[in-house]
Design a protein that fits this description.
It is built from eight helices and seven strands, in the order ααααββββαββαβαα. It has 219 residues and is α+β, with helices and mostly antiparallel strands. A seven-stranded antiparallel beta sheet has the order 2-1-5-6-7-4-3, covered by helices on one side.
């Protein structure tokens, strides 16, 4: 696995800093091609993860993905899934997955702290029982795991989670409309459905939006 795991540039830096043997030992001791039972439980317990993708131009992108614990499902030691809910319509991460497939996922427990990396090749699923099993999902991403490894958590800031996002879809897939979609300047570019929901919730100006955000008012 050594030569397929480390890139030439990574090897060069290891040699420069005399950490090649250390890197090889960590690879041998901690990097696997599948999730252990404990790692699977850790993944499914997380209410968030960070998703890394690369676009067709070679630029990387990192996104925060959140949901109720269990929104990332481990279907087998080498396969997991997560949903894509309503976003800003740019489809940066999903477009990158459609282009390049390879992704990285970083799971963190900020309270202990603890962190786990997973990477592999993903595909988009846009219909069928798997999508329907996630109420409110537009797509489901299914990942075939290539590598899993634990990262040292020493630089992870210890924090606690006070509450889940109020925008997480409920058991029937319903959630409040995003505050920014209620902006009066956005109405001409929204879908018909979102425009109707924004009008029902009440339109707001950009000044009101900034005031509400600064006061922590999300809904």
């Amino acid at each position: 696995m050594t030569e397929s795991f480390f890139s030439p540039a990574q090897r060069t830096l290891q040699a420069t800093r005399q950490t090649t043997k250390l890197a090889d030992r960590l690879l041998e001791a901690s990097v696997t091609s599948s999730l252990s039972d404990d790692q699977a439980r850790f993944v499914e317990s997380r209410p968030l993860f960070f998703l890394a993708t690369v676009d067709a131009f070679g630029f990387p992108s990192c996104s925060y993905k959140g949901g109720a614990p269990g929104f990332v499902r481990v279907l087998s030691p080498t396969r997991l899934t997560f949903p894509h809910f309503d976003g800003n319509g740019m489809f940066m991460s999903l477009g990158n997955i459609a282009d390049r497939a390879k992704i990285g996922m970083l799971f963190i427990d900020f309270e202990r702290p603890e962190r786990l990396r997973v990477r592999g090749e993903a595909q988009l699923i846009d219909s069928g029982p798997l999508v329907e099993s996630y109420p409110g999902a537009q797509y489901v991403v299914q990942l075939e795991v290539s590598n899993v490894w634990v990262n040292c958590p020493r630089y992870v800031h210890q924090m606690t989670t006070d509450a889940a996002s109020p925008y997480i879809p409920d058991e029937v897939g319903q959630s409040p409309i995003a505050l920014w979609k209620r902006l009066d300047v956005m109405q001409d570019v929204l879908t018909d459905g979102d425009r109707a929901r924004a009008l029902a919730a009440g339109l707001i100006s950009i000044e009101t939006y900034h005031q509400m955000v600064s006061e922590g008012e999300l809904l």
